[in-house]
Amino acid sequence: MAYFASGIVKIGRKSFLKHCFVKANIIDRQTCPSTIEVGMYDGIEDIIVYLRDLGYSDDVDISNFMTQSLAEKAEVLARILDSLSENKEVVLIEDKGCIVTHEGTVCEWFVEALRMMRKKTRTVLGVASKFNIRLPIVCDEMYVIKIPPMDKTETAGLLQKYLDQKGVGLQREDFKNYVNLMNGFPAQVKFTASLLQKYGAEKTYDYAAEIKNYDSEIIIQLMRPYEENEEYMDFIMLLVELDMVTYRTIQSIVRNDEFVSNIINKLYIDGVIEFYGVNREYIKIAYAVHEYITRAGYKTPERYQNAINDYITNFLDKYEYAELDMPDYLFKIKEKVKHGEYNSEYMLPSQYLKTMVELYEKDRDYARVIEFADTILKGCEYIEEKLVFEIRFFLCMALAQKRDRRFLAEVQEIHGADHNFLLGFYYRREGQYEKALIEIEKSLSLRKNFSKAKREKVQLLINLEQYDDAIELARENYTNDKKNVYHAHAYLLCILKSGRNADSRDVIDEILLSISKSVTDLGKELYPRCKALVSMYCERDIDKALALIDKAIEESDYKIYAIQDRFDICEKAHDIDEMKKTIEVLESTSMRDAYGKERAMIRFRILLAAYEGDEKSALTLLNELQDNKIRLNSNVLSKKVNAILMH
After folding, report:
1. Each residue of 70-97: pLDDT tens digit?
2. What percent helix, strand, coil does the chain show, rounded to 5?
3. Residue 205: enclosing H or E segment and its boundaries?
């Protein structure tokens, strides 16, 4: 039997399952069930490896997954679940898209494994699912409970409990105000009670924004002290690189027992790491922290990367896969795949996919993404459909990034909302914004809450300079994820360029504050650029705006975007001399993206000719776009040129 508790992260799914198991006498109150974590890029093979490692199924062979059918793998999983039942064990699985997909479907192999079990009288799994399961449930061996946020009465009750434990008293009005600030997260209530204990009722009002936006603010508050300590932050980067690791492995790499002992304790107390395995012997960075670190673009320090390489050479390479503990086993596979060396006997499909994701998102090495996809898709008959889809999806994204026409053939293997989204993404990269918008609209008609498509639609409308049409969706995207600097920047552009900045100064200041808090390279680059735009559009202070944007150009690693903002500022001020100076800046700036530089140069020259009233030159340059390989949207430029000439 498997019980599922679904709901948003930090809502208390695992705690609820444990409570139910205690009440049903499945476990006693003192028992702490073994816990494993699986994500959207994991598959049945990963579940088998993790569960086998708990020690109840040592006879299960975990080799040759690449040549086993899904039915055979489901049978192996069923045997492991039977072993858990025989040993009266319960395992908690934190599922972020492996078992229950983002569409709410339960993977067929999981259902089949439950049905194949010989001993179905005991509960063996509690699954805390990130995604809600689509009804109806078609498996008698599954029980599903949806965990909603707490209502105000439940929130008040939990807050009072924490305050009583901490010996904190509140006036009735203060108590009511703090309850109204909260959104029903148990951890949010605990956070509020801690603030009240530390600062008292009056001073805690200064932290009202942090309480109200707990889910987006807490990770920033948690990580700030670590980001101010280089030694601690370097160690966290090491843990992110290793993914899941034993204490012994960390000691072997760091070679400082006292430091490791102290920092591991601190990280656990602060909630930066979590322990997994039957004896809590495996260390893993908490999911929210991992997302934060990945988004921030931090890199493993060279000294630790060298130490990892030494560990691989001096230890991992000297042992066979079967002789290694589970984290070392998985890490060795990952490193071998990354370097193009692997033993097919011990290969996991998920390791291919995770390597592709890292190459795409972290390294932007689109050629190698395509190479990996081509390799694994040659023999994908024994890989589950969900993982094959993800591999094809990243293949298409990489082809689109390279503007490779092979994309148009590969995308035919993907269907539904994702098919239209990918076409829209490709056409935007080709500069065909109107065509791209049609595809994105189709995508959203098929999946209305498709966040990637919503972001893409806003970007397309901005490219088409349809700011009034974009602003509501941009606001929605930003409101739903204020930490995302892409959403913040897009919403700010829509406010400024739709002419609504006079009524939105408070919102503009909030957006600037949000971007300033970002620790990502993109956030650090966007903040001075956005300040420069606000100085021009809101304050009409071109001198201040140019001073800010010139400093941003000087300090930026990707100067093309700041230079484009400079031209935008000059347009707003109708300052032709500064437009010419911007073109000179672009000409004299060396950059890796020669295509982007040429594209911007052509656009600047067309617009400058229009502002100077040189209709002939502007129209000649526009007509030359038809024969030019540079992908600029001539319709958008033509409308803008005509508007300038008529002004």
Report:
1. 999 999 999 999 999 998 899 999 999 9
2. 65, 5, 25
3. none
Among 192, 193, 202, 198, which residue's Cα sits nearest to residue 171? 202
- Which CB contacts under 8 angstroms, 24+ apart, belong to 636-645? 636/433, 636/463, 636/464, 636/465, 637/603, 637/606, 637/607, 639/465, 640/465, 640/607, 640/610, 641/606, 641/607, 641/610, 644/607, 644/610, 644/611, 645/610, 645/613, 645/615, 645/618
Instruction: Please check whether residue 41 is in contact with residue 353, taking contact to mean a CB–CB distance below 8 angstroms.
Output: yes
Which whole-number Å values give the CA distances from 128 to 56, 136, 347, 386, in the listed order? Answer: 22, 19, 27, 20
Closest listed residue to residue 234, CA positions, set 162, 291, 164, 306: 306
Max mean pLDDT range (250-254, 312-316, 584-588, 637-641): 584-588
Winning range, highest mean pLDDT, from 17-21, 324-328, 355-359, 411-415: 411-415
Cβ proximity of 490 and 459 under 8 Å: yes
End-to-end CA distance of the chain: 72
Could you read off the pLDDT of 446-463 as tens digits, one per residue? 999 899 999 999 999 999
Give start and end residues of each alpha helix (H) in 271-406. Answer: 287-296, 302-314, 326-338, 349-358, 366-377, 385-401
Share of the chain above pLDDT 70, in %: 98
Classify residue 496 as left (phi > 0), alpha (psi -120 to 50) or beta: alpha
**Helix or strand (DSSP H, E) at 185:** none
From its phi and psi, is residue 167 left (phi > 0), alpha (psi between -120 and 50) or beta? Answer: left
CA dihedral 582, 585, 589, 592 (to 10 degrees): 0
pLDDT at 294 exceeding the cut of 90: no
Give the pLDDT of residue 451. Answer: 92
In the block, residue with structure tokens 């956070």: 191
CA distances from residue 375 to 65, 340, 368, 371, 394 in whole angstroms, order as listed: 16, 11, 10, 6, 13
**pTM score above 0.70:** yes
Chain center to CA of 125: 27
pLDDT of res. 512:
94
Rounded distance, CA 163 to CA 70, Å? Answer: 52
Strand order across the beta sheet in which 34-39 lies: 34-39, 91-96, 125-129, 2-6, 142-146
The Cα–Cα gap between 581 and 595 comes to: 21
Q: DSSP for 270-299, please give it.
A: HTSEEEESTTS-EEEE-HHHHHHHHHHT--
Average pLDDT value over all residues in the chain: 89
What is each CA distance from 434 to 457, 461, 491, in whole angstroms?
A: 11, 9, 21
Alpha-helix residue ranges (DSSP H) falling in 117-229:
152-166, 172-181, 186-204, 208-212, 214-227
List, for residues 153-186, the tens digit of each pLDDT value: 999 999 999 999 999 999 999 999 999 998 888 8
Task: Label residue 289 by pLDDT band (50, 70, 90).
Answer: confident
Alpha-carbon span 103 to 456, nearest angstrom: 20
493-507 pLDDT, tens digit each: 999 999 876 668 889
pLDDT at 296 over 80: no
Q: What letter would DSSP give residue 12?
A: S
Cα 601 to Cα 595: distance, rounded to the nearest angstrom? 10
Q: Enter the tokens of residue 490.
A: 């897009």
